[in-house]
């Protein structure tokens, strides 16, 4: 690895990275010109902020526009100052559909990762790649500088963080806890308070994206909390994702994620209605998917899910039970501010029906089955 320690001159201005050192593989450095390298490194400087509820929102592109193997990560470069070095040890709690590929990307990028999961066997593939294993969240947090947690629901997030032998018991000043689970704002604030009481830092960072984006390192992080921890873990977020947003106070990241998933759940319910209606009136639903993909309402979700939905196949990328949980939490958020959400409320009922049909662990696109049942009645 080779460190970029010299100032960069772009548009007659000199820039120096103050928050982190940027490293690239030497073999890749030899393939790009100094001008291209400067342009690539400039992608790590923040864009101008926009505004949200009186607070700035910062959007950071997490990936270089170049196609080479570039990662903003190094914890072993001897010529970087100690404050520029990344945390040496990274913990990851929750090795499921999302946590497993996220942790795998950290390991493959050279991070020293320690993992934990209630079912230890799920950690075995990561251990074979070089990850360490600890038997409790407490032990992981105690042995790591920064600990990430990806849990399935608010109850699990609280238990893993604050329960017996939870991560809080292993936290102390100088450590950081990053919760990338999808929970409600109150849960996130509670976990944050418990973590910060130990002297450690807390960042909520729920992700937008499902299994495939997690595997490809293309997640979107919606973060809020301690800004200094955000800056410290930004290179890790860049390894696991394509972009990251810092949204200010704890609770804003959770709220943004719930709004996004509420929209997604409503879209899938409406799409399901369209597929069934097209078939009912004698149209080819496959052609409907193609028509939609070329119009103003095109969305990757429709093109990815549509073909398998037509065949009544629902390979799990995002479990239906988690989508319904997010709909429920989003409706609760809307209720707390007296915002009417009748479309999301109606969609939530369809997900509840699908759960009652035994489809909880299927992909959330299986919500279409709840409509088939209604048509057959």
UniProtKB/TrEMBL annotation:
The keyword Oxidoreductase applies. Keywords: NAD, NADP, Oxidoreductase, Stress response. InterPro entries: 6-PGluconate_DH-like_C_sf (IPR008927), 6PGD_dom2 (IPR013328), 6PGDH_NADP-bd (IPR006115), HIBADH-like_NADP-bd (IPR029154), HIBADH-related_NP60_sf (IPR051265), NAD(P)-bd_dom_sf (IPR036291). It holds the Pfam family NAD_binding_2. GO terms for cellular component: chloroplast. Signal peptide: none annotated. It catalyses: 4-hydroxybutanoate + NADP(+) = succinate semialdehyde + NADPH + H(+); glycolate + NADP(+) = glyoxylate + NADPH + H(+). Residues 251-369 form the 3-hydroxyisobutyrate dehydrogenase-like NAD-binding domain. Residues 89-248 form the 6-phosphogluconate dehydrogenase NADP-binding domain. Gene3D superfamilies: N-(1-d-carboxylethyl)-l-norvaline Dehydrogenase, domain 2 (1.10.1040.10), NAD(P)-binding Rossmann-like Domain (3.40.50.720). The keyword Signal does not apply. Coiled coil: none annotated. Belongs to the HIBADH-related family. NP60 subfamily. This is Glyoxylate/succinic semialdehyde reductase 2, chloroplastic. It comes from Cannabis sativa (Hemp).
């Amino acid at each position: 690895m080779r460190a970029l320690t010299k100032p960069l001159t772009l548009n007659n201005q000199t820039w120096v990275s103050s928050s982190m050192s940027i490293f690239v593989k030497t073999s890749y450095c030899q393939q790009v010109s100094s001008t291209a390298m400067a342009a690539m490194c400039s992608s790590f400087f923040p864009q101008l902020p926009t505004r949200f509820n009186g607070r700035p929102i910062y959007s950071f592109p997490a990936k270089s526009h170049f196609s080479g193997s570039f990662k903003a990560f190094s914890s072993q470069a001897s010529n970087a100052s100690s404050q520029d070095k990344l945390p040496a040890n990274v913990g990851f709690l929750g090795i499921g559909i999302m946590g497993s590929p996220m942790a795998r990307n950290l390991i493959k990028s050279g991070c020293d990762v320690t993992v934990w999961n209630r079912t230890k066997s799920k950690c075995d593939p990561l251990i074979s790649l070089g990850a360490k294993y600890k038997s409790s969240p407490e032990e992981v947090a105690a042995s790591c500088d920064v600990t990430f947690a990806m849990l399935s629901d608010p109850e699990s997030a609280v238990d893993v963080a604050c329960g017996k032998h939870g991560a809080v018991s292993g936290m102390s000043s100088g450590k950081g806890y990053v919760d990338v689970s999808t929970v409600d704002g109150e849960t996130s604030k509670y976990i944050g308070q418990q973590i910060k009481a130990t002297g450690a830092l807390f960042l909520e960072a729920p992700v937008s994206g499902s299994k495939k984006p997690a595997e490809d390192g293309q997640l979107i992080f919606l973060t809020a909390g301690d800004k200094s921890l955000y800056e410290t873990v930004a290179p890790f977020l860049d390894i696991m994702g394509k972009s990251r947003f810092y949204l200010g106070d704890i609770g804003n990241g959770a709220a943004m994620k719930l709004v996004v998933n509420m929209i997604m759940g409503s879209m899938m319910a409406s799409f399901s209605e369209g597929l069934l209606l097209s078939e009912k009136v004698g149209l080819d639903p496959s052609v409907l998917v193609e028509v939609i993909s070329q119009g103003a309402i095109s969305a990757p979700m429709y093109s990815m899910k549509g073909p398998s939905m037509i065949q009544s196949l629902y390979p799990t990328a995002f479990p239906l039970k988690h989508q319904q949980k997010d709909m429920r939490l989003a409706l609760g958020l809307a209720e707390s501010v007296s915002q009417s959400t009748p479309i999301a409320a109606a969609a939530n009922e369809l997900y509840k029906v699908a759960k009652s049909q035994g489809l909880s662990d299927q992909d959330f696109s299986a919500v279409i089955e709840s409509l088939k049942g209604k048509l057959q009645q």
